Amino acid sequence: MFPGTRTYTAIDLCFVPLLGAVLLMTLPCEGAEWGIVVSTWLGGCSSALLSSSASIIASNVKGNTKKSVVSVAFFIAYCVGCIVSPFAWTSKDAPRYAQGCILSLSSTIALIITYVGFVIVVKRKNDSRDAKAADRQVQYVVEGLGGSQQAGVSTDSDLTDVQDKGFRYTI
Questions:
Q1: pLDDT tens track for 79-119
Q2: b/e burial code for range 27-57 (CB count within 10 A of at least 16 → b)
Q3: 77 C-beta neighbours (distance < 10 Å), count
Q4: If you write DSSP's letter for every residue of 14-77 in order, what string do you get?
Q5: Is 115 exposed, middle or buried (0-12, 13-18, 19+ CB in 10 A)?
Q6: How far apart are CA 116 and CA 118, in angstroms?
Q7: DSSP state, residue 155
Q8: pLDDT for 145
Q9: Is residue 93 part of a domain?
Q10: How many domains does the chain have?
């Protein structure tokens, strides 16, 4: 619907659980019971981040073997996070759960930094490939429909995104 905004949408979605963790740490225990409930709801809104990250990987990793390896690594990292993170939410930290909130804050901020870094790197790579295609360097230009030449449109092949110079990363 809005091309080129997937990573920016993922960054925006990071602010929902981030807000939940901040509220959970800062709201008073007395008189803000519903605020604490709402903050736990907001803090748990992380499934959209999983979907966004998976779609960014699917769109930007090319080559069957490479895509399989990256997808497995992503899944393993997700599983490790799901196994480790509950240990940060211990009853000794109740009712604030500072250790769990700090883990949530730091991991969400790290994800935002990762997304921003991804956008910077990908824009540079795309700009470099576009400039080389404009200079008519053949490996950066792809044959289009009817024999025309196009830049940034990659044919279906088993080359990786690094090997296929006609491939352009999706932001």
A1: 999 999 999 999 998 878 899 999 999 999 999 999 999 99
A2: beeeeeeeebebbeebbeebeebeebbeebe
A3: 11
A4: HHHHHHHHHHHHHS-SSS-HHHHHHHHHHHT--HHHHHHHHHHHHHH--SHHHHHHHHHHHHHH
A5: buried
A6: 5
A7: -
A8: 52
A9: yes
A10: 1
- Tell me if 45 is assigned to some domain: yes
Exposure string for 118-141, b = 16+ CB within 10 A, e = fewer:
beeebeeebeebeebbeeeeeebb
Q: Is the dihedral of CA 88, 94, 99, 104 positive or negative?
A: positive
Domain that holds residue 74: 6-129
> Residue 143: beta bridge partners?
149
Residue 35 covered by a domain: yes
Residue 167's CB is within 10 A of a number of other CB atoms, namely: 24
- Taking residue 17's Cβ as centre, other Cβ atoms within 10 Å add up to 22
Q: What integer is the mean pLDDT of 38-50?
A: 92
- Assign residue 62 a region: left if phi > 0, alpha if psi is -120 to 50, beta otherwise? beta
- In the chain the first and final C-alpha atoms are separated, in Å, by 14
Checking if the pLDDT of 170 tops 80, the result is: yes
- pTM score: 0.85
**Sign of CA pseudo-dihedral 145, 150, 154, 160:** positive
